[in-house]
Design brief:
- The protein is an alpha+beta fold and 261 residues long.
- The protein contains 9 helices and 7 strands.
- It has 3 domains: 80 residues, Tetratricopeptide repeat domain (Serine Threonine Protein Phosphatase 5, Tetratricopeptide repeat); 75 residues; 61 residues, SH3 Domains (SH3 type barrels).
- Strands 6-5-4-1-7 form a 5-stranded antiparallel sheet. Strands 2-3 form a two-stranded antiparallel sheet.
- Strand 5 and strand 6 form a beta hairpin.
- Helix 4 packs parallel to helix 6 and helix 5 packs antiparallel against helix 6.
- The termini are far apart.
- The relative contact order is 0.08.
- The N terminus is likely disordered.
- Keywords: Membrane, Signal, TPR repeat, Transmembrane, Transmembrane helix.
- This is TPR repeat protein.
- It holds the Pfam family TPR_11.
- InterPro entries: SH3-like_bac-type, SH3-like_dom_sf, TPR-like_helical_dom_sf, TPR_rpt.
Length: 261
C-alpha cells in the first residue's frame, strides 16, 4: 500500500511538471502572426500601449514588414509620440516606397515636428529619376530584371522558330524591348543597392539637441534641432555622428540622440 501511494505521488509530480512545461512552452511559442493580431485587437480597443508592445514583439521575433512598422507608427501617432511615429512610418516606407497611405500618414507625423527645414531644390531630371528609382525596392528591381530576361529569351526562341514574317517581326520587337528594359532594370538595381549602402538616415529621438560644428560638447552650436527631424548620417567618430540636414547644413550630433533607420 505504501509503495502504491509513493508511485501515485511521483506520477502526480511528473504530470504536474509536464503540464507546467506545456503551459510555459505555449506561452513562448506565440508567433509573430499571433502578436500582430493581438496588436490589431488592442489598437481597435484604443489600447495603444498594449498594441505597441505586441507589434514590437513581432519585430523581436525576427519578422518585419511594412504593415508592422505602419501600425507601430499609427499607435505612436495616437499617443502624440513624434519621433517614434516618424521613425516607424519611415521604416514602413523603406519596405513599400510608393505606398500612398504610408506617405500620407508620414506627412501628418512630420507636421508635428518643430524644425522647419527647407530641402535643397532638385532639378527636374533628378526628381524624375528618383521617382522612377523609388517604384521598386532593390528586390523588386532584381525580380523585374529576371522577368524581363526570361521574356527576352522566350521571345527570341519564338522569333527563331516562327516562320511567319509578321509573327517574327512582333517577337523580334518584343525581344529587343525586353533586353533594353532588362538592362535598364539591372542598372537601377545596382543604383538602388548603391544608394542604400551609401545613404544612412536617422531620426532624432531627443526632445531637443544641438547640432555642433565639432564632435564635442564645448564646440560651437550650428542650430538647435528637435525630435522627429530626419538627418543623413555621413560619418561616425567615437560617440558622435556627422549628419547632414535636408537644407545642406552639416554638423555633429551625439549618437545616443538619434536612431538609425
Amino acid at each position: 500500500m505504501k509503495m502504491q501511494r509513493l508511485k501515485y505521488k511521483y506520477q502526480t509530480i511528473v504530470l504536474g511538471c509536464l503540464f507546467g512545461f506545456m503551459l510555459v512552452q505555449n506561452a513562448f511559442s506565440q508567433g509573430p502572426e499571433q502578436f500582430f493580431e493581438a496588436g490589431n485587437s488592442e489598437y481597435a480597443k484604443n489600447n495603444f500601449e498594449a498594441a505597441i508592445m505586441n507589434y514590437e514583439n513581432v519585430l523581436e521575433s525576427g519578422y518585419s514588414s511594412a504593415a508592422v512598422y505602419y501600425n507601430l507608427g499609427n499607435a505612436n501617432y495616437k499617443l502624440n509620440r513624434i519621433a517614434p511615429s516618424v521613425y516607424n512610418y519611415e521604416k514602413a516606407l523603406l519596405l513599400k516606397p510608393n505606398d500612398a497611405e504610408i506617405k500620407n500618414n508620414l506627412q501628418f507625423a512630420q507636421n508635428m515636428t518643430i524644425d522647419a527645414i527647407t530641402p535643397l531644390p532638385q532639378n527636374t531630371f533628378k526628381k524624375w529619376y528618383n521617382q522612377i528609382l523609388g517604384i521598386f525596392t532593390i528586390d523588386g528591381w532584381a525580380t523585374a530584371t529576371i522577368v524581363l530576361v526570361f521574356l527576352f529569351t522566350l521571345s527570341f526562341i519564338l522569333y527563331f522558330f516562327n516562320k511567319g514574317v509578321g509573327s517574327k517581326r512582333i517577337f523580334f520587337t518584343v525581344a529587343l524591348v525586353s533586353i533594353f528594359l532588362a538592362l535598364l532594370s539591372l542598372t537601377l538595381t545596382f543604383q538602388a543597392k548603391s544608394n542604400e549602402a551609401n545613404r544612412e538616415y536617422a531620426i532624432i529621438f531627443s526632445v531637443e539637441t544641438e547640432l555642433k560644428n565639432e564632435p564635442n560638447n564645448s564646440s560651437e552650436q550650428i542650430v538647435v534641432l528637435h525630435e522627429g527631424t530626419k538627418v543623413r548620417v555621413l560619418e561616425e567618430q567615437d560617440d558622435w555622428r556627422l549628419v547632414r540636414l535636408a537644407d545642406g547644413k552639416e554638423g555633429w550630433l551625439p549618437k545616443v540622440e538619434i536612431k538609425i533607420l
